[in-house]
Each structure stands twice: as C-alpha cells, then as structure tokens.
Amino acid sequence: MMGRRSDWCCFYIFPDMALPPPDPQYVLRGANDAVNTLCFHCADPNPELPLLFSGSSDGLIHIWNIKTHRMDRILNGHDGKSVLWVKTLGNRNTLLSQGRDQNVCLWDLTEGRKDVTDAVFTDHVGFCKCSLLKVAERRWLMAMPGTGIEEVRVLELPSKTSVCTLKPEADAKLGVPLCLKLWQIQQTCQLTNPGIADVTLRPDKKILATAGWDHRIRIFGWKKLKPLAVLDYHTAAVHCVAFSDHSQPSQRLMAAASKDHRISVWAIYNQT
To answer: Residue 120, Cβ neighbours under 10 Å: how many?
Structure first.
C-alpha cells in the first residue's frame, strides 16, 4: 500500500530555489482505478486522526488514515460512475462528493456511517469539478456546471438556494467548462505548459500548486506567483492536488493524485 519511488523520480528545479525539491514522504496504493480528486481534513479537535479523502473513476470514495498510511473506509454512492470531486463541509463527518452520475451527494459519516443524506442534480455529465467557498459560519457557496452547455450555476449551501447562473454573451463561444474555482483573491499566473487539471492554494497562503496533464506538479510562490519547483513522480496525468490543514506544522502535507492510480504525499512546508 505504501512505498517509495525515489530510485527513478526526476525533479526540475529553478536556479533561484534555495533547496532541491523533496521526494514523496510515502505513496498510498489501493485505489484500483484513476484517482480524480483529493481532500484533506485534519482540523477537528482530535488532530491525531488526520484523514485524506479520494475519489476514483470506478465510483468509489476512499478514506485514508494519514497517520497509519492505510485505508479506513470505502464509500460507494455514485452507481459505479466516476467520482470527480470530494470536499468536507465543516467537519470530517460531513462530506460532499460529485460524480458523473450527475449528482452531488451529501454524506453523513458520523460514527462510521456511510449514508447519503441529500443530493443535488447537476444537469451535466461532463468532467468539470464543482468548487466550494466558505462565506460565513455554516454557509458556503458552491459553483457547478449549469444546464446549458456553457453555463455555471452557483448555489448557497446547505439551503441549496440558487444564487446566480453565469451565462456567456450571446455571441461568445466559450465551450464546455472544464475547471471551476471560487476565489476571493484575484491573481494571474502565465504557464508555459498547457493542461492544468487543478489549482490549490496552501492554507498559509504562501505557495500555490497545480496539477498538470504533463504528469507534473508545479509549485509557485503566491505573492508574486514566482515558479519554485516542478515535482515529477507520476507516470500519467495528475488530476488533483490538496494541502492538509493539520494544526501541527510537522504534520502538514501535500498530496497529489494521478491517472496512474497512485497518490503521492509530500512534505514541502519546511522547504518552501
């Protein structure tokens, strides 16, 4: 289930970076299909049980115990259709998951449960992931593909109230949305390698990570979006990156998941 691949890992480093990029701390194995999405949850009162949620193309959601590096539970609620996105909603026992069955499911995981308690139908069967933004205590906004081929819907949670629908101008030809991100800060980054599946800002707002179709994870400084490093471990497209929110700095990690069925876990807080 776990192992190191440092015998063949390659790293591309920018000349002005003080330290070389690290190897993965460990690799989680056990997902039997491409891993599309990741979500850490470490901020509960008991920080000794940090969790990592992952969603795969076989429709399964895996819950990993980061302390033991082992799988804790498997959730199955999308009828075998690919899971595109997972996100905790306030605490580790409330989970959102989006699947290609066109549903965003709300899970109750309290005391080992595996119950889907509510769902939102997305009217969209593509590969675009939802995006969640906390705007107040127990109140979130969720962006999702809309009914029209070029539309984006924004809902308020947990009420599921429609906030707005974003539509392009009548003469615009934008195509199908492939990636959404609700963001409160506007920045711009020029990337020379096309094909970015995910963009994630570390909780301390110091670095930004991207998941690339070219198999690589790129790290940028947030303030000036300065390139810091390229991490090259995976053998297929990287689908997502996630940062942990653990209260102890030594336990803060970054994870990346790929079409190659592997999840690489990195300790980069002290190096960047």
So the answer is: 19
